[in-house]
Amino acid sequence: MSAMPATADSGASAANGGQPLLVLDDVHTYYGHIHALQGISVTVNQGEIVTLLGSNGAGKTTTLKTISGLLHPRTGTVHFDGQDISRVEAHRLVRVGIGHAPEGRRIFSRLTVLENLQMGAFTRNIKEIGPDVERVMDLFPRLRERTDQAGGTLSGGEQQMLAIARALMSLPRVLLLDEPSLGLSPILVQQVFATIKEINEQGMTILLVEQNALQALSIADRGYVLQTGRVALSGPADHLRQDESVRKAYLGED
């Protein structure tokens, strides 16, 4: 069964019944004169995992940056929990409830694991973050073993765990994950995706950008396929897995 063309409210009837939490409506974002997003419309419902798929340059990372305030749309709107956040500064959006683990991890390499987690909670009273440090340590036991180790000395997989854990420390309502499996061994990919699923099962809404389409669609509720700044396909994850064009382009199947 082929996926349906996306519309701004295409996720309104998601299987889990959640209400729309994040809505991008006809968003156009530019890098200077480069028209990177050309009318993106995406909906993420409360409690879902939604994945953005597409080749390099399709606009996936730009979409996340537009949501998190690192970029602002020239036209179109981004709404979070019913509020227009299209022009809100990035640091204010952390307080609103948007967490972002960017592509390439971007941890503070000279700070310890614990200090990285504390930086993730910069919007909060440091005296109150102890239980949440414990919570992310439970999610990523390797980080507990390396609490006092500098972030730059961690392995690639451990740095990815730290990047996700740091984003969780702000207590976001939606977590934006950009290429969490990039550069990881197959075993670590499985571990990271299992943890993403666990985070979601604890109630976290997740928007996931991922080159590993098979892994992403295995845990997502719905997905969008981006091509050159536009939504080419969208629909339930199982429908996208069965779509012939998706199978050929992203799942490596003939």
Describe this structure as you would to a colleague:
- The protein is an alpha/beta fold.
- It is built from 10 helices and 10 strands.
- The strands form 2 sheets. The protein has a 6-stranded mixed sheet, sandwiched between helices. It has a 4-stranded antiparallel sheet with strand order 2-1-4-5, covered by helices on one side.
- Helix 3 (113-120) packs parallel to helix 6.
- It has a domain at 1-97 and 206-254: Rossmann fold (3-Layer(aba) Sandwich).
- Mean pLDDT is 88; it is low at 1-16.
In short:
This protein has helices at 60-68, 90-96, 113-120, 130-139, 141-145, 156-168, 186-201, 213-219, 237-242, 244-250; strands at residues 20-31, 34-45, 49-53, 75-80, 83-84, 98-101, 174-178, 205-209, 222-227, 230-236. By secondary structure, the protein is α/β, with parallel strands linked by helices.
